[in-house]
Amino acid sequence: MAKTLRTSGDYTIKAGAGTAGTNQIDFDSKTVRVRGDLIVDGDQTIVNTATLSVEDTFVELARNNSGAALDAGIYVNRGTAGNNAVFYWDESEDAFKAATTTDGAGVSPLTAATLANVRVAEPVNTSDAVTKNYLDTELAAVTSLDLSIIGDNLSTLLLESGDTLTITGGNNINTVVAEPNITTINLNNDLFNITSIASTSSNSNLTLTANGTGSVSINNILTFSSNASTPTAASITKLYSKTAGSGGTGVFFVNSTVDSGAEGELISKKKARAYAIALG
Fold first, then answer.
1. Which residue of 43, 185, 255, 270 is surrounded by the most CB atoms within 10 Å?
2. In a domain, 61, yes or no
3. How far apart are CA 239 and CA 255, in angstroms?
């Protein structure tokens, strides 16, 4: 026989001392339906069913978290199969993780977690997670890195998969290779074992410039090749070699602001002494 109990206010059913006691209330029926909100205040909620069906589109975890660094997720009790499994949000790293743990279901943040494998389907979209099989297949299909190096002689070298590009600094070049994929080459050392410096640009100057008040120093012999003609010089002094004239040195100079730009020859010590005697 159906029976309805209606009250005009709150209705309390209490067994023994209530939450402080040991008594319990059993509902023994095929279905128990609560028509309204259900609030359970206690330490744990245990559901002994074969299937749990939730109509809500989202399930909120850590509901009363007000900003503490708590980890939260799904905890799987594996029994005697091994450490229990979790799929959870790691608050300390701002990332989802799949792992196994020796911590209990009520421990947060997790103090011991070992990352576990996650299996996904082969990727279809560009933003899909990539499987190891897919990555291995794609790498095996790569036959060329499409990296070409062109030398000064305009010859092109194509680096293919498995090739190694070695950059050696030697005495004069400082080479540093660092992650992420950065190679720095600096010509910031003194030059040694250099036998020739030449400019390949037509009729261009080769300029040596010292820093600040420094000077260009030549510690040994400075050799001049013979010049067939007299060069022009505007507001600078040019020093060059020609067939020796009356000065007896063959080393000439010219400056547009000196002696109206006329060519002059440096005088040797022997010639200077002869001129001094001759002129009394």
1. 255
2. no
3. 9
Q: Tell me: cis bond preceding 180? Omega within 30 of 0 counts.
A: yes
Environment class of 37 (CB within 10 Å of its CB; exposed 0-12, middle 13-18, buried 19+): exposed
- Answer left, alpha or beta for residue 170, where phi above 0 means left and psi between -120 and 50 means alpha: left
Give the C-alpha separation, 24 to 53, whole Å: 26
Looking at 118, 150, 175, the residue that finishes a domain is 118
Closest C-alpha to 72, from 45, 56, 44, 91: 91
Q: What is the pLDDT of residues 71-112, one digit of tens each?
A: 999 999 999 999 999 999 999 999 999 999 999 998 999 999
Which of 118, 151, 182 is the C-terminal boundary of a domain? 118
Looking only at the bridges linking them, the beta strands covering 251-254 and 264-265 are antiparallel
Q: Which segments within 169-226 are labelled E, that is strand?
A: 174-178, 182-186
| Residue 140 is assigned to a structural domain of this protein | no
User: 178: which 2 tokens?
Assistant: 């660092």
Look at the chain and report how many structural domains it folds into: 2
Is residue 90 in a domain?
A: yes
The residue whose two tokens read 């002094």 is: 237
Pairwise CA distance, residues 71 & 91, whole Å: 5
Q: Give the domain range for residue 110.
A: 69-118
Supply the Cα-derived Rg of the chain in whole angstroms: 45
The model's pTM: 0.51
Give the distance from CA 88 to its chain's centroid.
28
For residue 193, give the DSSP letter.
S
